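Structure tokens please, single chain.
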Amino acid sequence: MKKIPFFKMSGSGNDFILIDHRKPLVDKAQIQEFVRKVCRRAISVGADGLILIENPDEEDARNGVHFKWHYYNADGGEAEMCGNGSRCAARFAYLKGIAPKTMAFRTLAGIIRAEMTGERQVKVQMSQPQDLRLNFPLDIEGETRKVHFINSGVPHTVYFVDQVDQADVFNLGRKTRYHQAFQPAGTNANFAQVVHPHSLRLRTYERGVENETLACGTGAVAAAIIASELGMTAPPVEVQVRSGEILKIHFERAGDGIAQVFMEGGVRIVYEGEMWEEAWE
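Here you go.
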């Protein structure tokens, strides 16, 4: 019977399955089906996503890259970047001896740099934000809403609300995620409440999970940057996500743009185990 060793990890409420895939264990031709099945809650391991840690390409290794990852959402689709997943990957790689405390790894969004700042604290350099659009109208079922957009590694739309606890995250989030304005890739949908000039509360409907999640790192980055661009906040910005945990977002202004974007927060190991074949049948 085939068994696959893995870690179950949580980054501020986002949970992930991590597999050391330097020696291949999963058939890449069947990876989407495999991810969908093992990410099912209640009848398999269950997770928001799955991460494969692999050896870097030769050129990357010569340039100081310690590993590469492949990140898959629970629906089996591969995504360019996941902020909380990247922090889990960094701690996993450090614990496995794959990388030192200060490390670099390859994602579809480019090379990401990370640092273990404590036993359970990880700080990662995020992708350079792109495609910032502020205050544009979005028509949803005959009602025009003012929204903001940025790609912080993956696409994010942000709504600012007075009371985030009262936001209709699932219904409005799902309509936003599939809106024709964001096709073909779709978008994540975030609902942010400004608490004070260095603090936000945030809830996120995540593309690929197709539901609200307890945290979204790239969403926290998107909300913090957009709030700053609108004059609502100034860096560093602490973002309280649905799990109640805090993500600290650091960034600098560079001319007309944003640079040196980092996200810092806690990572926990939930358990280590082996998946039996029944987990992906």
